[in-house]
Write the structure tokens for this entry.
Amino acid sequence: MADSPAAAIHGRFGSTPPGHRPSRFRWWGALGGDLAWGATRPILARLHCPGTGPVFPSLSESGAVLVDVPFKVGALYHRRDEIHARFGGQRQGGISTPKDSPVVIMFTGEAGVTHGYHDFWDDDGVLHYFGEGQVGDMTYSGGNRAILRHDVEGKVLLLFQMMGKGQPYRFLGEFQLASQPYEKAGVPDTRGDLRKAIVFPLRPVLHEVTPFEATHVGEAANAELELGSTVTLRLGEVRKKQSLFRRRLIGVEKECRLTGVRDLRFLRASHIKPWAECGTAEERVDGHNGLLLTPTADLLFDRGWITFEDKGALVPSQLLPDDVAKRIGFSVRSGRRCGAFTQPQSHYLEYHRNKVFEKKLAQSDDPVATLMETLSSQPGYPGK
């Protein structure tokens, strides 16, 4: 098979040669059943091409290789001791290409900005991932070639988020090319010189699933409730926008500012300006209009029991019972420093302070009783 970028693109997106195997087996169909979300699951990757011999030794009759990926979406892993110890590959750089494993390991995060990498999510839920190359025009070599040909060569793309120097990495899941890569001119390299960058549109394989705790909008509908097609379509659009909001949010916020929890499976994606009160669709999917909070912290923030100043000072309501404040499991001391916010976040926080903080409490006949009742149902509430 030709090795040129054009040939690889044609092989991935163009017509299928006679006798060519399907490009991908949906893991849930191929395995013949559902797996619990967050459980370790195998990933099926396609072989290179019939007639060339097996790329990997473990070959099933279907022509697929079973890849055991021991990572859970949203959880944290150390790059050297857990990621590369399992699959091998280069331990530095933004794209790692293990020689003897059917995976390509990609990393995203703010560290790439210094090299001109500005990964972003578009409105259709596609991640635009900048290729590697710190100086000069990017080329289809090394990690860029590996991403381009991942489906052709039977490798799956695994994406991790950088959390800071010396910190573990957050697993964001398996991805695949959504369309042809494109070139973007005028992107500064490490030295500040403008160059051409290669950008890969990537789509999450499990785009409809989220590791987050349930949120306020788009929660699972009652299974016994029969919904009309219009309502079902509307609910699907809401969930799609919620998913986009969450993905953009984790590029802005890394952890719960009140507890320090970073594992997405124990966090909620909380809007600062409530979803129902957003004036535009852009506000609803703006990652700066949100915080990552544990369920209890989310409850206090959403109901107006706490808020934040722009520079990160915590502001608790004077109505918050002392007993709750002592037993909540984290400090709600007035003036506690919780980290400065971005300028766009400050805009939304102003709304929260003026329209949500303590205002929602006034709408309840007995806000304290409501708070205590809700907290008692929280599985992690220390006072339970």
The first helix runs from residue 5 to 13.
